[in-house]
Specification:
mainly alpha, 3-stranded antiparallel sheet, 170 residues, 3 helices
Length: 170
């Protein structure tokens, strides 16, 4: 013979004093139409009937736990799906930023290449201009030295004509 508290101890040793569990046991006893006896004001039932109650309540508890686990799992899956969607959105946003940065980098790289080409062209023009200036300077030097030679010749001619005029008078 077992009372409700002993049956509760078999079902859930941690919640022996739970009024809810005890009420479930009493409800199950009534549902299965089990004959009860009173012993010192406590409800008692046969051991075989107590085993039936324990199995039935454990089975019910397992089904409730399973349903609750299924519900918890579906809630958790939904939360994970929402998180995945958020992460996908974030990844898409970041990928767009990366693409924008890559486009900007390409533009800057192209501009830098154009500037490098312009710089090389300007350097080539500068070298050509320097060469032309050097050639012009050499030409000026040559012309200057020829000019000096011609001036010397002119001076010589002037002196010679002066002497010729002098001698013609005598």
């Amino acid at each position: 013979m077992k009372n409700v508290k002993e049956i509760a101890k078999e079902i859930d040793p941690l919640n022996v004093n739970s009024q809810k569990l005890r009420q479930h046991i009493r409800d199950e006893i009534k549902r299965q139409h089990i004959e009860v006896k009173k012993d010192l004001g406590k409800i008692v039932i046969e051991d075989d009937d107590a085993k039936l109650i324990v199995r039935s309540l454990i089975k019910d508890q397992a089904e409730k736990d399973s349903a609750r686990n299924d519900e918890d799992s579906s809630i958790m899956i939904k939360k994970l799906q929402d998180q995945i969607k958020q992460k996908d959105t974030e990844i898409t946003r970041l990928n767009k930023k990366i693409e924008d940065y890559a486009d900007d980098f390409k533009k800057i790289s192209l501009q830098q290449q154009q500037l490098t080409n312009q710089q090389q062209q300007l350097q080539a023009k500068m070298l050509q201009s320097q060469k032309q200036l050097k050639d012009q300077s050499n030409l000026n030097d040559n012309l200057s030295s020829e000019n000096e030679k011609l001036n010397t010749e002119i001076e010589k001619m002037k002196k010679a004509t002066f002497w010729q005029r002098l001698f013609k008078q005598y």
